[in-house]
Amino acid sequence: MDTFIRMYWNEETPVIMKYFDENYVDGEWSIWTAVYKYNNELTMTHKTNNLVKGMFQRLETMKKHAFGLMYIFGNPNDQVIAGIWMGRGDKSFFLEDDNWTTDIVHYDLERLDMSKPENRATWEKCGAGNGDDWQG
Questions:
Q1: How confident is the model over 34-49, as pLDDT tens digits?
Q2: pTM
Q3: Alpha carbon distances (Å) from 87 to 46, 67, 75, 129
């Protein structure tokens, strides 16, 4: 995980995806999407941003076990919080520590099957920071 994280922050997307292709082992690692369940309650961008920042602060101890990218899409009163996570194991790694469940219970999680082209495309899009909305 440490190598992947260092590469993510220091390399271009093609290098990162090549490393991922060469090192990802399904079952040893898993990829998950996380979509906030209460997007209809998000009214102000700074409050939405604080919600995501707070989540990352509470997940600080997870950084050796998982890597996540969360995005805020839309405008005030029409926002979506969504992201993608990679973690150890084939089950939801958020459940391994009580501190990690604090925020994640407010998200719909879906494990991605990386053999499916549409799931692979979601991983690549999010990993590259491309896309201006969760659906597209």
A1: 999 999 999 999 999 9
A2: 0.91
A3: 28, 6, 30, 19
